[in-house]
Every structure is written in C-alpha cells, then in structure tokens.
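Troubleshooting: if your tokenizer reports a length mismatch, compare your output against this known-good record of 231 residues.
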Amino acid sequence: MIRFDLISAVPDLLESPLNHSIIRIARERGLAETHIHNLRDYSEDKHRKIDDYPYGGGAGMVLIPQPVFSCVESLQDQRKYDEVIFMTPDAPQFTQKDANRLSLSSNLMIICGHYKGIDQRIRDSIVTAEYSVGDFVLSGGELPALMVTDAVIRLIPGVLGDSESALSDSFMDDLLDAPAYTRPADFRGMRIPEVLTSGNHEKVREWRLSQSEEKTKQLRPDLYKLYKNKH
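Known-good structure output:
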C-alpha cells in the first residue's frame, strides 16, 4: 500500500478529486491512502497567517517557513517518507518514468505551493524531489499534486481492472499509445481497421506498435528519437 500526505493552503481544492474514480477505488481496496493537511492548522500566528511579502520587494506573497516546517516535521515524527515532493514550474518535468519509480514507495509527501511561491529555505532543507507538470504557471500546486497522485496510484497492482492497462499507456516505452476503437465496428460509415477484428493477436500487436511508432514520430519527435536509440 502507498500513502500520500498532501499539504495545502487551500485543502478544499483537493477533496473531491481524491474521492472519485481510480483514486477512490484504490482507497476502497486498501491499496492507497490519501491524507490532506491544512497548512493553516500549523500556523503559530493568531490569525493563522501562512504568507508574507517577499524580501527585496516585488509582487505577490510567499508562503512563510514556520507552518510548512511544523507540518512536515509533525508528519515525519510519525513515519519515514520516501520523498518529500514540491510541485513547481521551475523544476524538471514529471514523466511516466518518475511515476513508475514513485509507485514503488510506501509514503510520499507533496507540498503544494501557493501565491508567489514558498520560502527557499523550505526547498533547501525539507524537499527531496521537485517536479513541474509543464512550462506554464498555475495558481497553486494542488492540481499538479493531484496529477502526480493519480499517475502513481493507477500503477499500483490491483488498482486497475485490467492488470496490463497501465503497462500499455503512453510513454511506457517512450511511445505514445496507439489509437483505440470500440463497438460498433461501423459508425456512420466510419469503420475500424480490419486487423482489430481479425482475431490474430500477433497481427494486432504489430499494428498497434506501428501505429504508436508513427504517432510518436509525428507528434513527439523527441520521444521517437529516444525510442529509436533504444531499438
């Protein structure tokens, strides 16, 4: 089982996604736990303040160290964490390989930034891994944290109904996934490729591989180059 502890200044943003779909199924099957921690509960300020103006001036507010340190240290007193993750645009991009590695963990903590960011001393002293979900800026780290949580949990054996489903996802072998079709075979004159109804599993496998290769070559030449270098 894997446990996620998510630390947030706006915990309500996390509630609903963690109680639906694959994450809910994983929790019900006892394969994953998710716990949300309100940063304001750890503030020593009488007004539960968690942010302040940046030194040196400039726009925006910065999360102050004390509530974050107090929350993280309280959790670390209870268990050992494989990683303390911070979601931020100025970090390496999160990939399927990262999800694969993290899925082998027992306890993961994710700190969700907010406002202008977090005090650098938090990153220097507490954080062990940093990830971005793309070259764009969001209002906070809650959505990226949910993306990482979902990407990791769905890889845990027993979470998905089909044990091979996650193994065939895009990026698993530096390839994008092949096109998918379902019933009916003929919809408004648009027919699915005949190979998919041939019953020849080897032919289907070859078709899917060729489609994945061509799709990746066209849409993600950077990934295709990695794939060809391995093959």
